[in-house]
Amino acid sequence: MPETVLVTGGSGYIAGWCIVELLRAGYDVRTTVRSHGKEKAVVDAVSTAVDPAGRLGFAVADLTDDEGWDLAVKGVDYVLHVASPLGGAAPDDPDAMIAPARDGALRVLRSATAAGVKRVVMTSAANAASPTSYATEGVTDETLWTDPQDPTLSPYRRSKTLAEHAAWDFMANAQGSTELTTVLPGAVFGPILTTSNIGSVGIIGRMVAGSMRGVPRIGLEIVDVRDLADIHIRAMTSPDAAGQRFLATGEFTWMTQMARTLREGLGAEGLKVSTRQVPDLLVRLVARFRDPSLREITPALGRRNRHSTDKAHRILGWQPRPAQETVLDCARSLLAHDAL
């Protein structure tokens, strides 16, 4: 009998590709949604890449509520805890994102350990293993933990760090045989399955559409969503992955390089892409006086911190594809879905 994997947050961008790759690998999949009304959208998205008939089931569960999680994990062999709150936290409520991420992870782990699930693979973020915002150069690995008290951390970055801390603390005292592994991805791009939830891919969409008239001096460690799904499955099955953190980052790429790749690689469809680099001072001024949403990115201006993925290569045999391929595949997928 095929083993069954629970993937949390099935309507999400990363979760969708995890479902696709698990089905391709022969697993049965159950995924959580916040309501039954979201099931068809997940099936439609997954069906663009693989036939899920008879092998994809659903459970209704929400990260903010205890109800549903025991039933969601019942009878499954593994859990990929991919779901996470996204978006900016309200200025008057800094815990608006932290609490769902941290408490949601604990809900999943409590139910998984009680049910005797073999292993939980939790999606964290490379930003949970990064140096202080004042550092501008260097290469770090999984042994480093981001300081959650750094005042420049965005709510998202703080939430991922605290959620992963809470998960490891919980597992240190948990009873039973369930194992935990965490995967820490960089900036996730690649093809989309649906236009309903494209996440960070929207950056490339804005570049191709020409609505981004210049690019800030920010570098990203680009990982393809297909490679991210692959490392989740490798981390789920490798005997040596139990109790480990794995960075899943790709090539460090300045946004100006991304823009040139799009402009040169898309032909006529890339003519609107701006390769003009916006001066750091201008970005800071706009963030301060005109667009407060930009304040979260100003600490990253000019930084070239990178992460080592040697551990993932060595233990899991994981090898991500080139960033240029990911960026172009992402753009072509957005164009094909008329998602600009």
From TrEMBL:
NAD-dependent epimerase/dehydratase domain location: 5-243
InterPro entries documented for this protein: Epimerase_deHydtase (IPR001509), NAD(P)-bd_dom_sf (IPR036291), NAD(P)_dehydrat-like (IPR050425)
Keyword Oxidoreductase: yes
Domain of life, per lineage: Bacteria
SUPFAM superfamilies, per the entry: NAD(P)-binding Rossmann-fold domains
Keyword check for Phosphoprotein: no
Keyword line: Oxidoreductase
UniProt similarity note: Belongs to the NAD(P)-dependent epimerase/dehydratase family. Dihydroflavonol-4-reductase subfamily.
PANTHER family given in the database record: NAD DEPENDENT EPIMERASE/DEHYDRATASE, STEROL-4-ALPHA-CARBOXYLATE 3-DEHYDROGENASE, DECARBOXYLATING
Name used for this protein in its record: NAD-dependent epimerase/dehydratase family protein
Organism annotation: Streptomyces fildesensis
